[in-house]
Amino acid sequence: MKISRVAHISFWSIALAFFFCLSALRISRVAFKNSIHFIGPFHSTDSFFFFDTGRPNSSERLIELFGSIPASESVVIFTRSDERRSSFIGMMVAYLAWPHPVEIIDVIDRSPARADHHLETPGAYVFCRVNPPPSCRRGERFGETLEVVTAEKVAIK
Amino acid sequence: MSFFAVLGAIVTILAAGFGALQLVLPSRVRTGFASACALSWLFGTCIVSALIWVVGFVARGAIVPTIVALICVALPLVVCRIKGPPSFWWPDWRRLRAIDVVLASILAAQVVIIFYLSCVHTLGGDGILNWEIKARYAYENAGVLPATYLQDSGRAFSHPEYPLAIPYTELWLYFWLGDSNQFWAKTIFPLFYLAGVILLSSIIAQLTGKTWTGLVGSILLFFIPQVSVGGGSVIVGYADFPLSVFYLATIGYLIRACRPDVDGSFPVYGVCLAFLPWVKREGIVLWVFAALCGALVIVLRKKSPKNLLALLPGLSVIAGWKLYLLRMHAVSSFDFSPLSLSTLQCSIHRLGSILSELGSELAATDKWSFLWALAVIAAAFFLRRYRDIRASVVLAAVIGPICVYVLSYTFSAWPNYIAHLQLSISRLLMHVTPLVVLLIVAALPPNSAQVSEALSAD
Fold it and tell me: What is the ipTM of this complex?
């Protein structure tokens, strides 16, 4: 009885010690590499855009840009599915583009993410890690990876 | 100033939850103060979010938070007036052993670390795109989620069909702050962690009869990387950890209700059960298993069939939300094909690769350490020690949802269903993680005699 008790305690002590040590290493590696920055209404989206474009306060600037076009006009967002960050930033842009209707188009398979709806007149085109066509005049750039071109700047050849 | 606004929001949530808790508990029952606070937080978040949603049908703008705040304040006052002042029991500090104090200090330090990590980390992708997005859009639309958002297929990636417990709790903070704010929105998640560790400690301590096991269980939870720092963890603002806390409370209080000498646990089980589908869509799966376990307890413990009425509120929540989505013509994301036998026949061949991926996931020590290996060993100890319905309840509550989640990937509509699984399975497994910790820690005490006899006494 006593031996089984000692075996029980020893087994669980060793098992939990291994558990704690292995986890502590992983947690300490991940946990303390960040520090507080961008405390504000767009704390998270600003951080994501900063990580992708290197530009601070991108959320407010994007909202300002989308605010300059009528709410009924849509925002067309071009992404590429072979780059995960492109799709992610595309969705972040869609989040900020409210109340405009949005359409996210994957340039790799050339189809809208959902093709069962009819969009209003596009008011802006957003290129997330996608090069704008040469026919577009230069729009508002956010670093090297994100560009917003309002419809009036799109010159059709 | 923002800090005090957030504090006001939290206090009103706790007040509403406390009122509801006192309402469902029998008058003579004394609850632990810490457990009462934890349950008040869980109840409060769901009550406040549901109230905002319901009041939003008839009012807009400043009237919505005003009515909700009035109810939050009035509820505990009215309940105390009707049922008398609440009765708590407090731990006797003089009887605490040194080991309990040391473990409690470690646990407190872990909670502080979680608060810190929550501040330094951003909301995760889904934290913004699935949850905070609804709070923000509702705030900008006078406190009501815009119908255009629900019908917006361009934003179907944000799962407009997901329920509103988490986003509307964030919305409650926004009402108090007077603006939407991604930084302050995160503060609710460490509070779910705090509520989770309190409940885990209390449930384990009552199950094993030892305070130290409860504290070890809560400490163990922090050391699961997927819970503390992983993708979908407490600190990134996803609904999975809060859902796991609700599930822990549901099953934990059901286990308590198995004992004939514990009163007031079944009503708490009933309320937590009802809230599961309101926290996340997968809450319906957890609701089904928790309801089946509840029915089993009612039958085998010869409880009054009236207790089956505890299943009705959850059914109403599921039906009400479904009806609302139908009425609003809400779009759904196309993650899964419709359930049918023919679809199952076509895709059943996927099961082999899905199980293989699940095995890799469970063995991923960078996410789970040795949690699942220990769980298998602990399950044997647990079955030996608790030779009664409690063992069946805990094991069914852990294994059942995992089986359904795994099977669901055979219906995945993603072109690469393995990528779908790899992206989401860790978060789904989190739903049962606190219960797995309970399973492991309940196996720790070497003396098994007293616990196995606890139920056979009556």
Answer: 0.89
